[in-house]
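## retry 2 of 3
previous attempt timed out at serialization; input unchanged, resubmitting
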Amino acid sequence: MKTTRHATYNLNYHIVWLPKYRQSVLEGEVADRVRTILHEIADDKGLEIIDLTVQPDHIHLFVSSPPKHAPSLLANWFKGISSRKYNHRYADNDGEKIRWARGYYAGTAGHVSSETVQDYIQRHKEGDT
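## retry succeeded, writing output
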């Protein structure tokens, strides 16, 4: 469980996206650079990358986020910022630009027992603080 000033949460998102035309461009040094950039984005945004797999033709990102961020915002951040940073840093040196396909997959994952929910409700009944 994680906490913010006003929330206790366990929100984990599985986000998958592809390079444009599902080209196998995420290999070797390119994959390493993209991986580094994704970690930079998470650090800048206060997110925790739980797991990350960069395959030649797609990326699997498992990330924990506070409830104030919608999954669509997370996908847009990781896709948009990563392509801009990668293209700015590396594409000028005769490197290929990274372009992501428009869509993405987002799913949620988390686990909480019914006892935890009941305990939370009991601790926050009206009049109890």
